[in-house]
């Protein structure tokens, strides 16, 4: 099979990409998750790579895959080479794609913020071919084929242009029938009720905020009981809140329409604005393409409109 062809060194492109995935993820399991394959397939690829090289690339230290000295030098050179290959392929793919644009966002942002507003963009730019890709990791930002990204967590992407998108405003929300879904609820009343917890895997993206930080902001050093369900998908957290299963931390840009429509209510009047806004990331060269510039500017315009929208 052509996918199995290797260079004269006996090392295939697939083996080298698995190598970098293990380096970035820190373990074979994380690499498999990022690559969409099983951990045994990652182990097999690494064994094949080490067999072709005649020397170990990784050492196993406390359950983590740690590069040997020679492996570190190999990974640095491989990363540089594959990045050059990927740039060449990306440039080829983008040729003649002035009317195409791809936006990479999380599923919650796509569902609760983007979809209700997307008609306005399509009406203004009917000739733009728009693709929306969703995922729950920031690891592919600047690497995949997207033109624009809105990260889930915080990070540094020095090769990408960063534009402030939306402020991060956070407050608790619950279904209208919840006994604490009223304006006078105080923060300390939330120390015991069922709280819906979003569990963030640190290998996929950083956690922007959580209940522990919310309570600390309001002067409570002990962590709330958080006896409610725990979810690794924030979309499911909101679905649980809508179903009356507990209180969720609500990011304003995601819950504002639900609150305005009466599907959720704020729990108390306290909120936190973190000062760490969400951002839109773009490759500087891509912004010269009309479709990318159109979507980028529309996202910032729509966000500006949200910031000046009257509260429900």
TrEMBL record:
Keywords, sorted A to Z: DNA-binding, Transcription, Transcription regulation
Organism: Actinomycetospora termitidis
Domain HTH lysR-type stretches: 14-68
InterPro entries referenced in this protein's UniProt entry, alphabetically: LysR-type_TF_proteobact-type, LysR_HTH_N, LysR_subst-bd, WH-like_DNA-bd_sf, WH_DNA-bd_sf
PROSITE patterns recorded: HTH_LYSR
Protein name: LysR substrate-binding domain-containing protein
Annotated SUPFAM superfamilies: Periplasmic binding protein-like II (SSF53850), Winged helix' DNA-binding domain (SSF46785)
Family listed: Belongs to the LysR transcriptional regulatory family.
Pfam families the record matches: HTH_1, LysR_substrate
Gene3D superfamilies: Periplasmic binding protein-like II (3.40.190.10), Winged helix-like DNA-binding domain superfamily/Winged helix DNA-binding domain (1.10.10.10)
Domain of life: Bacteria
């Amino acid at each position: 099979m052509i996918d199995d062809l290797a260079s004269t060194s006996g090392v295939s492109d697939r083996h080298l990409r698995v190598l970098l995935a293990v380096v970035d993820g820190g373990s074979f399991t994380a690499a498999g998750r990022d690559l969409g394959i099983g951990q045994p397939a990652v182990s097999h690829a690494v064994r094949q790579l080490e067999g072709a090289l005649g020397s170990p690339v990784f050492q196993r230290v406390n359950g983590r895959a740690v590069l040997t000295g020679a492996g570190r030098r190999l990974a640095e050179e491989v990363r540089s080479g594959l990045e050059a290959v990927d740039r060449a392929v990306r440039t080829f793919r983008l040729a003649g794609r002035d009317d195409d644009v791809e936006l990479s966002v999380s599923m919650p942002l796509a569902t609760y913020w983007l979809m209700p507003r997307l008609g306005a963009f399509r009406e203004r730019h009917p000739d733009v071919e728009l693709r929306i890709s969703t995922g729950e990791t920031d690891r592919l930002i600047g690497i995949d084929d997207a033109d624009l990204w809105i990260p889930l967590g915080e990070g540094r992407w020095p090769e990408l242009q960063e534009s402030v998108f939306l402020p991060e405003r956070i407050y608790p929300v619950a279904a209208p029938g919840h006994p604490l879904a009223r304006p006078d609820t105080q923060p300390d009343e939330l120390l015991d009720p069922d709280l819906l917890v979003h569990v963030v895997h640190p290998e996929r993206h950083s956690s922007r905020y959580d209940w522990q930080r919310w309570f600390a902001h309001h002067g409570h050093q002990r962590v709330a009981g958080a006896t409610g369900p725990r979810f690794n998908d924030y979309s499911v957290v909101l679905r649980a809140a809508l179903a009356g299963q507990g209180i969720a931390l609500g990011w304003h840009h995601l819950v504002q329409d639900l609150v305005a429509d009466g599907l959720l209510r704020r729990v108390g009047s306290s909120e936190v604005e973190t000062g760490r806004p969400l951002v839109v990331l773009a490759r500087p060269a891509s912004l010269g393409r009309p479709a990318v510039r159109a979507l980028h500017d529309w996202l910032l315009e729509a966000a500006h409109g949200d910031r000046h929208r009257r509260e429900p």
